[in-house]
Amino acid sequence: MALFxxxxxxxxxxxxxxxxxxxxxxxxxxxxxSRIKPALRGELKCIPAGGDNLLFFDFSPFExxxxxxxxxxxxxYTLTGPVTNPATWKMTLKGADGIVVxxxxxxxxxxxxxxxxxxxxxxxxxxxxxxxxxPAILQLNDHDNSSQIMDDSEMAFxxxxxxxxxxxxxxxxxxGVLDALTTLSRMVLDQxxxxxxxxxxxxxxxxxxxxxxxxxxNKSDYGSDQNCEKLEAYSExxxxxxxxxxxxxxxxxxxxxxxxxxxxxxxxxRRVIVSVSVETE
Length: 281
Fold this sequence. Notes:
By secondary structure, the chain is an alpha/beta fold. About 20% of the residues lie in helices and about 30% in strands. The strands form 2 sheets. Strands 1, 2, 3, 4, 5, 6, 7 and 8 form an 8-stranded mixed β-sheet that branches. Strands 9, 10, 11, 12 and 13 form a 5-stranded antiparallel β-sheet that branches.
């Protein structure tokens, strides 16, 4: 779900480049970053995340404002290299507004791509989302040194992704990389309605992983500790907040306990998920 910052008239959109190791995700993101005006982009960062490495940056695709004076800011994420902890992908995909499923077209790499797509479906289903529920494209990455490549329809059929738009690219040269991102961005923006009920939102930031003992998250957030700022919206009310625990929705994931809290002030109501990591001595 796109996050609206109505104070800044900014729409924050989260896009994930997903695929197996070696499919060209990091190369594509580095190419995109190099082609954006410095004034429109944030810093390209790579940080440790759950035992793996998270590569990300954000940028504004348009200098001119949208109707009603809103600006769009795209937040691009991927995991680099071999991913050792599947939970890292799951946390990175949380709250994604659009997904680039990136695989290479070398036939011998098809089993890795098929496994990656199967895992992607599992990660999304944990959030009650299907791969067809959010904007997504299949980006086929060609390699310069490969003499054998599979065609678009053959790859889509083999990966059981016949309904996704297919974009072919070469991450090394940059050919088709921006076209693929543009295609997905348009799909995402088609689902964004600026004139929706204003809600206080903070900007998305990199997902928080299991290195924190306490994580506050909202069903529509990006796993940021900035979610605490969302509660500031209640300060304008004079009534004391009412907090209740929805015990039937408490979940346990290994050492992590997720506690759903319903916070009510006057006619306003919001659910916040408090995740507590329990460590035994």
